[in-house]
Design a protein that fits this description.
Helix content is 41%, strand content 25%. It has nine helices and ten strands. The strands form two sheets. Strands 6-7-8-3-9-10 form a six-stranded mixed beta sheet, with helices on both faces. It has a four-stranded antiparallel beta sheet with strand order 2-1-4-5, covered by helices on one side.
Length: 264
């Protein structure tokens, strides 16, 4: 079982005026295999900054991040990242995009293609392996991005608003795909969204963050994702009275914390 620990993680940026801006303040967070942690909050609350630190793209100004007891010092294959924009390479086919990281690590072609085909099947893209990525819809391209991140078998899957640019119906269908992949592979997932409903549906643990500086103000343990895995009926889960009640509670919390941070 993998463990990811953030201990007192803070991030400060220098301002053009020569001062500093505290973007993230003393974040403590623990995740283990099978946890689906969703970060939710208004713009500027430090969600992406925290994800960038976990990914190794950004070093904390103070505190540390440990993955299986080892400090995170930079990017690594043990952490896969899916961005809002898929960042696929348009000159490569679908399967070539998915196997690209494995190719860079020197894996034999037959082995990496087998893995790529498996991951494409898992995201519902069997039959599109040799298609140019520019011929795919936005939702299909994002699924290629997810398959590519899973191909390296990371311990942690980091997802920075991966569904934010999609239409509502496509977004809901990919939410379901992501949950089924999570239930099967038991990865640590850290997911950023601005959608309260999406957060409630996906999360085993939901952290609500407040801006100026970014910090965790409340954590919820949730089970709606497991209800979906058991029933396969997303609409039934999202229409539950307790789901709707929780959605309103979290919306009120976000609005109140955002209002408190606004200058008078």
């Amino acid at each position: 079982m993998s463990h990811l620990i953030c201990q007192g993680v803070s991030v400060s940026y220098e301002t053009p005026q020569g001062g500093s801006l505290l973007a993230l303040s003393s974040v403590d967070l623990e995740m283990a295999s099978g946890d689906f942690v969703v970060a939710l909050g208004a713009s500027g609350c430090g969600k992406t900054t925290l994800l960038s630190c976990i990914a190794g793209f950004l070093s904390p100004s103070s505190g540390e991040i440990l993955l299986d007891g080892k400090p995170v010092r930079g990017p690594g294959a043990d952490r896969g990242v899916v961005f809002q924009k898929h960042a696929l390479m348009p000159w490569l086919s679908v399967v070539e995009n998915v196997e690209f990281g494995l190719k860079m690590r020197g894996m034999a072609r037959s082995a990496r293609q087998r893995i790529a085909f498996e991951k494409l099947e898992a995201v519902g893209l069997s039959g599109y392996e040799n298609s140019p990525v520019y011929q795919l819809s936005g939702g299909m391209q994002q699924r290629v991005g997810i398959a590519r991140s899973l191909a390296s078998n990371p311990e942690v899957l980091l997802m920075d608003e991966p569904l934010g640019a999609l239409d509502a119906l496509t977004r809901e269908s990919i939410q379901e795909i992501i949950l089924r992949l999570w239930a099967r592979e038991k990865k640590i997932v850290f997911f950023i969204t601005h959608s309260v409903e999406e957060a409630l549906f996906l999360a085993t643990h939901l952290i609500v963050m407040s801006p100026s500086p970014g910090r965790i103000v409340k954590t919820y343990s949730l089970g709606f994702c497991k209800d979906f895995i058991a029933s396969g009926d997303a609409r039934a889960v999202k229409s539950k009275p307790e789901f709707i009640t929780m959605r309103e509670e979290i919306l009120n919390l976000i609005h109140s914390t955002h209002a408190e941070s606004m200058p008078v």
